[in-house]
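Protocol step 4 of 5: obtain the predicted structure for the target chain.
Materials: sequence only (see below). No template structures provided, no constraints applied. The aim of this step is simply to have a reference model before the mutagenesis design in step 5. Sequence pasted as it appears in the construct record:
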Amino acid sequence: MSIVVIETSLRESLSAFDELGKLVKFDCGEDGVIVIDARNPPAMMSRDDVEETDCTLEMALDVLRQILDRELDPTSAFMSGRLRVRGDMMVAMELSAVLG
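Step 4 output (structure tokens):
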């Protein structure tokens, strides 16, 4: 599994981020990052790392894949320490609805 596969999966639901209206980063450490900028819809995706986001989700690439495949609930991932949230927790909660 690579970040490119994850990026393809997220691209299929990119329009769902439009209502969120935020800058979000999925940080998978050494495997890479995916940034979705929905501040000015339509949402745009890139793999360019940015420092300041409304919300950054840090997790292993496999955890992100499990969340996107609906094999793992984002809340369960957070509660078990497999997912860390930096920034606005409310955005993370809204993301849970977008991803699920």
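Step 4 remarks: The chain is about 35% helix and 25% strand. The first strand starts at residue 23 and ends at 27.
Proceed to step 5.
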